[in-house]
Amino acid sequence: PEAITVAELANRMAERVADVVKSLMQSGIMATQNQTIDADTAELIIEEFGHKVVRVSDSDVEDVIASVEDKDEDLQPRPPVITIMGHVDHGKTSLLDAIRQTSVTSGEAGGITQHIGAYQVTTKDGQVLSFLDTPGHAAFTSMRSRGAQVTDIVVLVVAADDAVMPQTVEAISHAKAAGVPMIVAINKVDKPSANPTKVRTDLLQHEVIVEEMSGEVQDVEVSAHTGQGLDQLLEAIALQAEILELKANPNRAAEGAVIEAQLDVGRGPVATVLVQKGTLKQGDIFVVGEQYGKVRALINDKGERVSEAGPSVPVEVLGLNGTPEAGDVLNVTATEAQAREIAEYRAHAAKEKRAAAGAATTLDQLLQKA
Ligand code: GDP
Ligand code: MG
């Protein structure tokens, strides 16, 4: 199965395609630039050109970044990661802002501006909670399809004056598909037109049975505007987190998921990463999706430089060679060569997959025409 096209081989060696074709011919192999040759043949040619052979396969990649099985005694409690979902305009952003305000101590007030799409709060009881800015349902789905399970608890926001709407239903099915427990926040109860009972009965039709209806899903009436019910919501989250017994080993090579990433004019590629295992440190070498790098700086949700970030902590990571995608997994590796090889291997595999998909279509089209 390991094969490479002549053109790609030439490209990777930075040699002219014609020279590679000629060298193949001298070895008795007639191949045009788009034909594939097997790995052994490629190796011969590479050596012929005086280059070094570095083979990376799927299993090598897995070996390098193999999730080290953490022993029970190495696991320590970690903060829950909460995503707020719900229909547009039902108050997701307002609720996130209100939660941040209530947990900000008076000394900090005003000094807190959110820098990244995620933040941590400490409740009055001293519990730390990590909130992800709702990434949008599409992003949530794409992250899950990339294998990144980033959230432990979904807070489903439903406006009491609007009840269950299409994106509410979508959010319910995302949470169910991901197997993530839900807490219902019935928002805007300060409004005269608010009808929390309608929200609860609407939810019944989607098999979400809240505690008020003798079900098991916690429901809390809140107002992002007046602050009503926010403490109860945080308590509900804390209770749910306790039930989940969330743990991670902070003392290992870090693994995390990209929440968002962009190319910053001044700072280069920047990724917001939610650390899920281990502790990410300044100077760590890592591979993330098809990119790699060395942590040049870590910046927390308050915009401060930090030297490390442990499980459930969201941080901005600087020092990437390119911009990864939301949902890409970050793994710390032992050496830069490993990180680069894995990134290049993945980029190459993705390119081949696209090419194969393209070739199949062309063949289909040809057959249809024939
Ligand atoms: P999102 O689209 O879900 O993020 O919703 P927003 O947070 O942007 O809120 C949509 C609108 O609802 C804004 O005009 C908010 O001011 C308003 N809103 C949000 N929460 C409340 C609330 O608790 N009470 C009232 N009366 N209005 C709210
Ligand atoms: Mg919003």
TrEMBL record:
One of its GO terms (cellular component) is cytosol. It comes from the Bacteria. The keyword Repeat does not apply. Residues 77-245 form the Tr-type G domain. One of its GO terms (molecular function) is translation initiation factor activity. GTP binds at residues 86-93, 133-137, 187-190. It is found in: Cytoplasm. The keyword Membrane does not apply. Keywords: Cytoplasm, GTP-binding, Initiation factor, Nucleotide-binding, Protein biosynthesis. Belongs to the TRAFAC class translation factor GTPase superfamily. Classic translation factor GTPase family. IF-2 subfamily. One of the essential components for the initiation of protein synthesis. Protects formylmethionyl-tRNA from spontaneous hydrolysis and promotes its binding to the 30S ribosomal subunits. Also involved in the hydrolysis of GTP during the formation of the 70S ribosomal complex. This is Translation initiation factor IF-2. It comes from Sagittula salina. The gene is infB.
